[in-house]
Every structure is written in C-alpha cells, then in structure tokens.
C-alpha cells in the first residue's frame, strides 16, 4: 500500500493513500477527525477555512463520533446552520438504494 507523509509542525503524519492531497475530501475529514489542534490549524493555514467548510459540507464522510462532530461544527468550523448529523456519524447506518 502506498503512503504519503505530510509534515505538520514537529510531527509527520502518514496518510495511507496513493494520491494524498491536502485539498481532497478524504484527507480533510481525516485531519478534522483524527488530527490534533495544531494539525487543524495548519490545515486551515494551508488550504483556507472557506475551502475546508465547503469540503466538509459538500462531501460528508461517516468518520465522526458525536462528540467530535459537535466540537468540529461549533468550535472549529463555526457552522451557522444545522447540518444532517446522520451523514457524518460513523454509528449511523449507510443509506443504500
């Protein structure tokens, strides 16, 4: 499996993807959910807060716990309108058609 190493602050983070890109929805969600506050700050500085918000809202991923999702919505992204938590919580079933 290919892996890319992104250097954030004093630590290197390994993202297991052959084409890791800081602007990709997968990488953005991984950093928001599993990164520390320094990682998130550097992501905002590198990509921009507007891009992160747009990515978060346009490409939901079921990787968040309830507590993490609330923290990200209220304090990290400061979203002014409610979102459908079911699209983001990893404990909810997937919608199949």
Report on this model:
The chain has 97 residues and is mainly α. It has one domain (19-87). The chain is 43% helix and 10% strand. The chain has helices at 25-34, 37-47, 49-58, 66-76; strands spanning 4-8, 11-15. The chain has a two-stranded antiparallel sheet. It is globular and about 35 Å long. Residues 1-5 have low confidence and may be disordered.
Summary, kept brief:
The chain has 97 residues and is mainly alpha-helical. It has one domain. It has helices spanning 25-34, 37-47, 49-58, 66-76; strands at residues 4-8, 11-15.
Topology:
Elements: E1 4-8, E2 11-15, H1 25-34, H2 37-47, H3 49-58, H4 66-76
Helix pairs in contact: 2-3
Spans of at least 5 consecutive residues with low confidence: 1-5
How much strand? 5-15%
- Helical run tally: 4
Proportion in helices: 40-55%
User: What order do the SSEs take from the amino end to the carboxyl end, as H and E?
Assistant: EEHHHH
Biggest sheet character: 2 strands, antiparallel
Mean pLDDT: 83
Give the CA-based shape: globular
Task: Provide tags for this entry.
97 residues, disordered N terminus, mainly alpha
């Amino acid at each position: 499996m290919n892996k890319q190493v992104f250097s954030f602050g004093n630590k290197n983070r390994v993202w297991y993807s052959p084409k890791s890109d800081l602007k990709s929805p997968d990488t953005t969600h991984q950093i928001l959910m599993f990164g520390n506050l320094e990682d998130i700050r550097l992501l905002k500085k590198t990509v921009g807060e507007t891009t992160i918000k747009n990515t978060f809202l346009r490409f939901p991923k079921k990787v968040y716990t309830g507590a993490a999702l609330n923290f990200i919505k209220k304090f990290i992204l400061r979203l002014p309108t409610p979102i459908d938590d079911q699209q983001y919580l990893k404990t909810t079933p997937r919608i199949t058609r």
